[in-house]
Every structure is written in structure tokens, then in C-alpha cells.
Amino acid sequence: VNRLEGPPRDFFSLSGKSSGRKGTLHELVVMDEGDNLMRSLVSALMSYKMDVSSGAIHLKEISSELEATCPTLFQSEDRIFYDARMSLRSARKASGAERNELIQNALKMLLQVPLVVNIYAVFSELIDLKAYQGAVDLVIQAAAMRDPRNIALQNDARKEDYQRVREECYVLVIEVLTQLKTSSMTEVALTSSPLSASKAESESHQAMKTYTKILSHCMSSNDICFHKYLYNQLMSMGPEAQNDLIQQNPAYLEEFLREQAGLSAGPAPIHTIVKKLPALMPKAVDALEVLGRLYVHRHMFSHAAYLQLLLGERLNVSEGDPSFVSLEKRQQHLLDAMRLAKSRSQHQGLQSPDSEGFSNSLLDALQCKVEIIAFQIRLVDSLTSKASSCESELMQVGGEYNIPRQSIDRLTELVNKGVHENISMLIQTELGNLITADGQERLTQLLTSYAGYAMKTLNLVTTFFSLEDLYNDFARPECMWVLCLEMLHLAQFSDVQMIKDHWDMCLFAAIKESVDGQSLSAACSIVRDLGNNFYPNDVSFPMQHLVQRLEEIAAGIWPAGEGSPASSDVHKLIPKTLLEVCGASERLRYVYDTLIERHTTTNVLRLQYLKSVIVVLEFAKMEMLKSKSDFRSTPGILSTRPLREAGLLVELCDKYLLQAQSLSSDLDLNLDDLVSSFERVKNLDK
């Protein structure tokens, strides 16, 4: 009786107030629970007999007697179960082949009668005996016998109840796997073990080996319900356990992960059925991340890349929601997608299902989207900076009118929350008589600007826009000309005049923002930075137009009425900048030659061009001399190119020398230094 628990123990135990028992024989016979109470008593009897029995033979005699005298309470299945338990008890004292034989015999008997097995007690015994695979098989079969019609897998009202019944068995396996996984971590083993470091490390290695062995055996099961429960538990254990799952590469894993993410679980590839993802909870995102890693493990790199693309473009919710995805996270998804798409091309020799039915333009599309998300992040930074400047001005104006700082903070807070329909009314409501009419007008103007920046920033943070929308709705209205040019370049825009107009606006803005005397440096810096990205694209980087504009800035004639001539010591900056972009002189020589020969060019500009072309010709001379030296140092190579280059250089110098002499008389200027410069370039021996 002392071995019993719960209601059976209460029924049979001695009363605290008298020597009589709580339950009577009459109650035992007529109660609905009478059979279960008596079976519990028989189970306690057998447990007691196993502990005090001198051997399996004695226990078999008791089992046979019980089966013969009370077959209702003790049937052949019960006898087989206790025979198996006794075999396990005997295995504890045995070793070697005998021990293994006893365990295997016990398992065979237990698997015959899973419904009568006390799964919790027997599982612990099997684990103690290190019969891990047998313990897993017993748990899975016991769970299946509790749900013989597989209701847990059907669309049935009782589905959740049967899932719970099955999981009561499955949890035993998970507990063992969790314990082994924890023990397999070397750091844990070393810090928690009183043994030497080498001994603890050995135990850690053994735990990992056992964990892997059990996990592999679990994956061989055909019980889909068990697979789903196991995957779910391993997913919740973090990246390490998720990686173990991926390494096992079980057949049901892809279907499970797609279901977890809310996608169709059919055989069709995701890129053929999913074009856009809704906002996702963290668990669904985690499932897709693991699915992507599974595809990589299977060398299905384009499938993994497409998943990252979907994650990067998924719909969003408001900030603060668990499903919110930041621009930086989107960017990381897209960068990962591009890396995976590149991996596909590097692994094309591998035999994999990735090579069929996928667009070869995926990598190009991803590279474009990576640049678009970078544009969007830059727009957010720029608008945030403008909003911050606007907020500082609000504080300054508020100080001028003795408005408390907390009142200004309150106004900006309301605007950030979306209250910007009637700014003037909002200021009147919040400040009342604290502000004059003139002050209200100034605050209204500033707060309206701040509201515009705040609203645009919020839109950019929460939504992934197309390149067209970024240009039309954000970059162009905010006059971010550098960004506009980069966007047009990415879009391969072909309207040459529009590109030139954008360059003019970009150079004009750089001049306006520059300090006194630095306008040419600021303009050259813009040309250098963008030219390094655009060159040699003639549409995005109209070199002749840009050379003309820079020379006009240096001459002080552009923008009209606003410029002043640059100092003579910076006239070399323009050709040096463009040579840095081009890397060679040939193209730039042609541009300057065209501008010098143009009949509409004024004498002032022609002089400016001649001063700059000297730098280009000096660079060309160095190129020619280096080329000549390279050919001389390489035996067996004959070429007339250095000679042709030298002849062309002399011819150009003669032509420009005449131009300089002509300008000297027309402008009544002493251009001896310019003439001598051309003479010096002509002398190829120096």
C-alpha cells in the first residue's frame, strides 16, 4: 500500500483516527473505479515482489498464479510486461553480451504490449541502461497505440486532445535530448564538473556522441506527429539545436518549416507560388531562416536566396510591434540573398535541384535591390538630419518668445504621433496666449516642415519602396541631387538632357553649400565621387558637359552673375580630378580638343581650356614614356604604338601652341609661360 500514489493510496491506506481502512470491500466491488484500484494494488504487489524476489523464476510463478486466479485484473499482456521488467532488472547486474541480450529481450517483450507499459518508469530504466534507441522506439510505439486512428494528424475536433496524449510520451525523448545537448557543451562541462578538464571534456564528447546517435534514430521514425513535435522543440532550443536539425536533413523538415511560416506545404518550389510575404511573427521568420539554411545544406542556393529576398521585402507593421522589420534588417536579408545567389554560380558544378527552373536574372535583381535599400537608408538619414535641424530651430524660436522647452517637446511629440493635419490649430491649442501672432506664424512654418520630414521618415522606415517611388516621392522633392543622379544611373535612364540638368543642379547645390573660395573644390569633389561610380557610362557621366561646367566655374562665369574666377594655383584641379576618374588621358584629350575647337567657345574659356589641357598632355607624355620603357624591357615584342603616340602628342602641342599665341594677341595678355609649357611637353627627351 505504501507504494501506491493518489486515489488508490487514499483508498487502501490506514485512517489517521482509527485502525480501520478508508475503503470497504463492498465499495471496491460496486464502485466504477474498483477495477482500476485493484489493478493499482496488483501493480504495487508486483513491484514489491520484483524488489524482494530472489530471481526471475520466482516472479514468473507469481505472474502465472495471478493470471490463472484473477484474469480480469492480470492478463497475459501484464505477465509479458513484468517479465520484461525483470529482464531489465537482471541486465543491471550483467555485463557484456549477456547484458545486451537481456536488454534486447526486454525490448522485444515491451514492444509487444505498449498499452500496458508504464512508459515513464520503463523509459527511465532503459535510459539508465543506455538503451537509448530502444527507449525511443518504445515511446513512439506507445504514443501511436494511444492514438491508433491517427486523429492527431486529421482535421478532427479531438485533434488537440490526441496531440496532447501523444506528446505526453514524446516529451520523455525531448528531456533526454535536452540534457545530453547541455552536457555536450564543453564550457558547461568544464565549469560544472568536479573532474579534471580532460575528463570533463571526454564526458562532453561522449554526451554529444550519444545525443547525435539518438537524434539520428529519431529521424528514422515514420511517425509524422513525433517529427513535428521534435522539430518544434529543437527549434525552440536555439541556433545550435536548429543546426543539428539541419545536419540531419530529415524528409519532413521542409514541410514543417513551410507550415510554421504559414506557406503552402506542397511540393511546388516557393518561388513559383509566393511573390510577397505579409508581416510575420518572429516564430515564422525563424522558421524561414532555418528553411533557408536547410536549402544551403542541400546546395539549393537560389531557393535560399529567394527566401532571403522575400524576408527582405515582406510587409511591415508599426514600430514597437514584435513583427516590425527595420531597414537595416531588410538590408541584411538582401545582402544575404545576394551572397547566396553568388554562391549558386560558384557551385553550379554540383548536382542539385537548384539548377532547374530558376531565373538567371536573380543575381542582377538582387544587386539592384541592395542598392535601392541603401538609397532608402541614406534618405532616412538625410531626412532625420533635416528634422533634427528643424527641431533645433523650433527650440531657438521658442526661446525667443519665452515658450517653455517642454511645450515645444510636446508639439514635436504630437507631430511624431501623427497629429499634423492642422498645425496652426495645434499650436494655438497647446500654447494659447503664450505666443504672439508673429511667433505663431514662425512656429507654424517650422513645425509644418518638421511634420513633413517626420511623416516621410516614418514612411521610409516602415515600407520598402521601389526605385521609382524613392525618386519621385522623396529624393526629387527634397532636391537631393546626388541621390537623384545615382538613382537615374541605377535605372539606366537615357534622357541625356535631363541627366545634364541634374548635374547642373548638383554642381549648383555644391557651390551654394561651399565656403568662400572653395566652390571649384566642392564641384570637383562631387564630380570625382560620382564619376568613380558612373564612368565610363556616357549618359550618366556626360564628360564634355562636366568639363565645360567646371571650367566655367573656374572662370567665374557659371552660375551667371554669382561666380568669381578661381585663383591661378587651382587651375590644375579640374584635369587632375577627371584624370583620376578616367585613369587615362586619351578620352580627356578628345574632350578638351572638342571644346577648344568649338566655334562658340569664348576666348576666355578657350584660354581656360588651354591651361587645363597642358596637365592632360603632361600626363599623356608620362603614359607614352612608360609604355615605351615597357616595350623595351620585354624581349621579342615589337610595337609602333609609342611612336604613334609621340607623333600625336607633338602634333597637339603644335596646334595648341598656335592657339595660345593667337589668344595672346587677341586678349593682349602675356602668355609666354603657357607657350613654354607646350614647348616643354613637345620635348620628349625630358
Secondary-structure map:
Blueprint: H1 6-12, H2 25-30, H3 34-52, H4 56-69, H5 76-93, H6 96-112, H7 119-128, H8 132-146, H9 159-184, H10 186-192, H11 197-219, H12 224-236, H13 239-248, H14 253-260, H15 270-273, H16 282-297, H17 301-313, H18 327-346, H19 362-400, H20 405-416, H21 423-431, H22 437-462, H23 467-475, H24 481-490, H25 496-513, H26 519-534, H27 543-555, H28 573-582, H29 586-597, H30 603-633, H31 641-666, H32 672-682
What does this structure look like?
By secondary structure, the chain is an all-alpha fold. Helices cover 71% and strands 0% of the residues. The longest helix is centred in the middle third of the chain and has 39 residues, at 362-400. It is elongated, with a radius of gyration of 42 Å. The chain starts with 5 loop residues before the first helix and ends with a helix. Residues 187-197 have low confidence and may be disordered.
Low-confidence spans: pLDDT under 50, at least 5 residues? 187-197
Integer-rounded radius of gyration = 42 Å
Distance between the termini: 115 Å
Coarse shape: elongated
What structural class do the secondary elements suggest?
mainly alpha
Which range does the strand content fall in?
A: under 5%
Mean pLDDT: 86
Give a short account of the largest sheet: none
* Separate helix tally: 32
Number of strands: 0
Please estimate the helix content: over 70%
